[in-house]
Design goal:
Blueprint (H helix, E strand, L loop, with lengths): L4 H5 L13 H22 L32 H14 L1 H4 L9 E3 L2 E5 L11 E7 L10 E7 L10 H9 L3 E5 L23 H24 L2 E9 L1 H11 L4 E7 L5 H7 L4 H7 L5 H7 L9 H5 L4 E7 L7 H14 L4 E5 L11 H16 L1
Parallel strand pairs: 4-5, 4-6, 6-7, 7-8, 8-9
Antiparallel strand pairs: 1-2, 2-3, 3-5
């Protein structure tokens, strides 16, 4: 096992004995231990994680439209990032704003266009989407479509079954390749390390780009005559989807598969991001990391999100070692103060095991039925 994985496992290894437990609690403990072991196995199958050096990445903030007079003038990188995040939150419509692309191109089932957010990586600057158009059986009804945002380090073939499932029920789907994923991955990478990493500024910029690219996809869907548009995000894609929906009233129906309040807390405590924490520890505290990534944390946009007439589904898992359950419970409870009618589903598995039988069928049922009923 990689040395850095001990960081992510630290919260999960200390367990009391079974002798004094009643039978029901003993069964629960055995089950939770089995799920956790399965989570560790599924996580550690990937042997290409790289512990990259910590970087403030302040150069990535130069093109932000919200920085204004916020400059790195001797106050230090930490304070500069703090100030830039506060400005971005205060002016979030501008921060996540964009000029709609003019070069949408559909060839076969592949949609491409130039991202409104440009980066030093040529491959990443072209957005790719896989298109699954549904047959419009009743022309008098509004055309429906769902934008699908997959998980971190997803491959181009993942989430396609869900897209096909929605299409068979009459809902068109567009699967977005996230920044630095799939066809957008720079040649020096094997994983989507530039999307989430110990480079703080680049992680911020990648998230901003994902939100802008998502909203650009909505522009294209509207140009194709789609009137009812939803969004589905999984794991990292769930964070992107929430930020996009909070800033785009056109995304009426939402499904967030895994959810959390703070971007930093997931990276700091998650099993799958233990190699990133290895680079962060000793350089920056969790409190300061939270401040550096506040602008991409859903918790700061709850009231804005609730101000629109949304219909959200929140899914999380009881034994998640990547998005810890308390983080999911927190944001579900907080959004509930503003939107008591939101739907919440809690499944008895973990982050990785949600992608295995029978849980993948359960979550698929909840997601598809939510869009069929509400979109």
């Amino acid at each position: 096992m990689k040395p850095y994985l001990s960081v992510g496992l630290a919260a999960h290894v200390a367990r009391p004995g079974y002798a004094a437990l009643p039978p029901s609690r003993m069964l629960h403990r055995l089950y939770s231990n089995w799920i956790e072991k399965r989570e560790v196995y599924l996580c550690t199958r990937s042997t290409d994680r790289v512990v990259r050096p910590f970087e403030w990445g302040t150069e990535w903030l130069k093109s932000w439209p919200t920085n204004g007079n916020c400059h790195l003038n001797g106050q230090g990188e930490l304070q500069f990032l703090r100030d830039a995040n506060l400005l971005a939150i205060r002016n979030s419509d501008q921060f996540f704003g964009y000029d709609s692309p003019r070069d949408f191109r559909l060839e076969g089932n592949r949609l491409t266009f130039t991202s409104p957010v440009q980066t030093p990586y040529v491959e990443n600057n072209t957005v790719h989407g896989q298109w699954f158009p549904a047959e419009q059986k009743n022309p008098s009804k509004p055309k429906r479509a769902v934008l699908v945002l997959p998980h971190w380090n997803s491959h181009s073939t993942q989430h396609l079954a869900l897209c096909e499932g929605l299409r068979k029920f009459g809902i068109s789907t567009l699967r977005l390749s996230l920044p630095y994923h799939d066809w957008r991955m720079p040649p020096e990478l094997h994983r989507a390390d530039y999307a989430v990493s110990a480079n703080l500024g680049r992680t911020l910029d990648a998230t901003r780009q994902a939100v802008v690219d998502s909203r650009s996809c909505v522009d294209w869907l509207e140009s194709q005559g789609y009137e009812r548009i939803g969004i589905l995000g999984t794991s990292l894609g769930s964070c992107y989807a929430f930020l996009a929906s909070a800033h785009d009233p056109r995304l009426k129906v939402n499904a967030f598969n895994h959810c959390s309040a703070f971007f930093a807390d997931v990276v700091w405590t998650g099993l799958s991001t233990a190699h990133i924490r290895t680079s962060l520890e000793g350089v920056i505290s969790l409190e300061d990391l939270r401040a550096c990534w506040n602008a991409i944390s859903p918790v700061h946009y709850l009231e804005k999100y609730a101000s629109y007439q949304k219909n959200p589904l929140f899914v999380y898992t009881r034994y998640d070692t990547t998005f810890l359950p308390e983080f999911s419970e927190y944001i579900v409870n907080e959004i509930g103060k503003h939107m008591p009618k939101r739907k919440v589903v809690v499944l008895p598995c973990g982050h990785y095991t949600l992608g295995e039988s029978p849980f993948k069928f359960l979550v698929g049922y909840h997601i598809v039925s939510h869009f069929l009923k509400n979109l």
